[in-house]
Amino acid sequence: MRIDELAGHFGVSLATMHRDLDQLVERRLLRKERGRAAPFPTLTMETATRFRVGVNLAVKEALCAAVADEIRPGSTLVLDDSTTVFPLAARIARTEAVTVVTNSLGVARLFDETPGADVTLLGGRYRGEFGSCVGPEVLRALGRIHADVAVMSAVSVLGGRLFHPIRDYAEIKEAMLDCAERSLLLVDHTKFGKSATHAYSDIARYDRVVTDRGAPAGELAALRRRGVTVDVVDA
């Protein structure tokens, strides 16, 4: 895609767009050539949070609405740093007294004015482009957490396996799965049929997967063959 078109799509300057793309080039997640940006074949890249937060927002809100009734007052909830869970965090912040554990500064800030919420922000090495912390400190902290529910998203889902282009985040998602009694995966249709560098879990570890009607039938069939509860929502 043309870099000037990307800048216009995300509402940023051309210089800002080039700087963000240069970071992805350094991580070998894409290449720049003659004013265009292109991902390497079969790989999925993770873009900065500010670019993702407004993408497919109606779908994200529908996915979150579908699982809102699973969050009980007084429960302990683990949320990852995916923008897909932001609408759920915002909904809970308006209504519920809960304990929230997250590595996402954006998620934590949604509870700034929720006096009944007890928020634990997992600290570690801060990744500014993603607004979240990674590293062994986060993993150790999650090892001491016992949560009622973990709600996460995924960058890539292929054949019932989950993938992430960045190892640190793949490890955190595994740790979040390990610390929760019940795990929910919210993924829109754009996440299916792709792989990335680091495989981190079989989707059968999740108790419930929620997606939208654009999800490929073959991928959904693969999930159900693994015994996964799959809910498809309108958005």
TrEMBL record:
InterPro entries: Carb_Metab_HTH_regulators, DeoR-like_C, DeoR_HTH, NagB/RpiA_transferase-like, WH_DNA-bd_sf. It comes from the Bacteria. PROSITE patterns: HTH_DEOR_2. Residues 1-39 form the HTH deoR-type domain. Keywords: Repressor, Transcription, Transcription regulation. Pfam families: DeoRC, HTH_DeoR. One of its GO terms (molecular function) is DNA-binding transcription factor activity. Repressor of the lactose catabolism operon. Galactose-6-phosphate is the inducer. This is Lactose phosphotransferase system repressor.
